Amino acid sequence: MRLCLPTYRLxxxxxxxxxxxxxxxxxxxxxTVQELQTRCDKGDTSACYNSGILYWAGKSxxxxxxxxxxxxxKACDGDESRACTDLAFMHMEGDGTRKDMSMAVTLFTKxxxxxxxxxxxxxxILNEDGVGTPKNKKRAAELYTKACGGGHPRGCNxxxxxxxxxxxxxxxxxxxxxxxxKxxxxxxxLGCSNLGQAYDYGENVRQDKFMAxxLYTKACxxxxxxxxxxxxxxxxxxxxxxxSVDRAKVYYGKACxxxxxxxxxxYARLNR
Length: 272
Hints:
By secondary structure, the chain is mainly α. Among the domains are: 1-103, Tetratricopeptide repeat domain (Serine Threonine Protein Phosphatase 5, Tetratricopeptide repeat, Alpha Horseshoe); 208-272, Alpha Horseshoe (Serine Threonine Protein Phosphatase 5, Tetratricopeptide repeat). 64% of the residues lie in helices and 0% in strands. The chain has helices spanning 33-41, 45-57, 65-77, 81-93, 101-113, 117-129, 137-149, 153-165, 173-185, 189-201, 209-221, 225-237, 245-257, 261-270. The radius of gyration is 21 Å and the shape is globular.
């Protein structure tokens, strides 16, 4: 049986946390810490931020999360919105600074107001779930809209889910499909998974198993377990692709590796 779970967003904020921080400033490693520090001392907030990334990640310098937090704060105080976002993450986790959810919300708000789409996206999750701030679905939808418009694909996915459920906005399932596509086109594997499910079951789009499998393939490559499982089903049944039990086992196995119980059961069944 193909899994047909409710459209989901993986609201675990850990997925959006500091593991991607070093990617936010790809030019940081091209300069030495000394060069960046000199520029930072002269008021270049971008240099403060990039220097903070090097200290956070331990690139070209000994890892020092406390020093990273200091540099992010200096950059944030100088209106470098990206730094406010990353400093907020650190306050959420107590990473290099005190754990302070209230401060994290304040910093996410500042980063979002400053135009950082990541900050808007995480602030939206906090408002939707009522974490560190009162639950407010309407406010969450507004923030997801801002995040999506600012180029944050996960924000588009989460906004799509609100449209599909009619939470915080008037229900519009066709708009939801458009937003899942925008999320997927922006590189969010979860958006591809949700869009794949729409094509698989013909939910507000013309049913297209071939398109669904293409989207599941993208999502599975991004470690979305349910999409790996559904690819396994497609290969096992020969739906939208050439039947292959061997390929089905590969995808069931990956779903199992990603801790999806149904994937483990299907893999075991094919190995009997």
